[in-house]
């Protein structure tokens, strides 16, 4: 554990040296806890990490209204927490961090998209739409059905939407899952949204459990 921390520290120092040589301040990092997909009415904390010795840190929110939150570090503070309580559609959208040090502004962080679910009160239904055609137990098509005219559909594997890497987004309601591995079991949920407000999702569907004995899962 000590070796890992030492190596990580060396990597950070090397990165800061590279940024210093290029005349640019290191980019801050940003993340959300418990995750980037939050149900309406829940709380979330956004964290920003900076190098030591910064003067000011700002968290920008690009949503229905542009605004920012500002924090002044205490002593050698490097991690800043911004608590957002009772999430609504107003709090959804894109967040960035940036900071000042030595009178210079840093580059902005990578973007963090906070999604709020349950803004649209419809609950989609997730079903197995069709069985295999010509390749037994190899292809499965899932249908995320809604009554409203949504044009974005989101399928989340393992029933977990908290992290973007668990979800697949597309403009039609059918999801093809192919090449399923032996004994593989997974749970899925789907959501629906609109192209003009992709950070606002419907309620989640009921979980759908799949257990297929052959092949390997791949997202198409």
Automatic annotation (TrEMBL):
Which segments constitute the Ig-like domain? 28-113
Q: Where is the signal peptide?
A: 1-20
Which keywords does the record carry? Disulfide bond, Immunoglobulin domain, Signal
Specify the domain of life of the species encoding this protein: Eukaryota
- Coiled-coil zones: none
Q: Does the keyword Nucleotide-binding apply?
A: no
Name of the molecule in the record: Leukocyte immunoglobulin-like receptor subfamily A member 6 isoform X3
């Amino acid at each position: 554990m000590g070796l890992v921390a030492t190596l990580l520290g060396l990597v950070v120092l090397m990165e800061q040296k590279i940024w210093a040589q290029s005349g640019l301040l290191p980019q801050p990092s940003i993340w959300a806890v418990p995750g980037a997909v939050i149900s309406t009415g829940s709380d979330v904390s956004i964290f920003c990490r900076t190098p030591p010795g910064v003067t000011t840190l700002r968290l920008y929110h690009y949503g229905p209204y542009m605004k920012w939150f500002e924090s002044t570090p205490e002593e050698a503070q490097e991690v800043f927490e911004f608590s957002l309580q009772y999430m609504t559609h107003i709090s959804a959208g894109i967040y960035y961090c940036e900071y000042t040090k030595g009178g210079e502004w840093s580059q902005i962080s990578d973007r963090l998209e906070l999604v709020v679910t349950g803004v649209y009160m419809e609950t989609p239904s997730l079903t197995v739409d069709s069985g295999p055609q010509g390749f037994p137990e190899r292809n499965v098509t899932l249908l995320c059905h809604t009554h409203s005219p949504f044009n974005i559909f989101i399928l989340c594997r393992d029933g977990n939407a908290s992290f973007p890497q668990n979800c697949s987004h597309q403009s039609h309601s059918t999801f093809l899952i192919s090449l399923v591995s032996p004994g593989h079991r997974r749970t899925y949920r789907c959501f629906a949204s609109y192209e003009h407000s992709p950070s606002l999702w419907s309620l989640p569907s009921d979980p759908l459990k799949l257990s297929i004995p052959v092949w390997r899962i791949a997202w198409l």
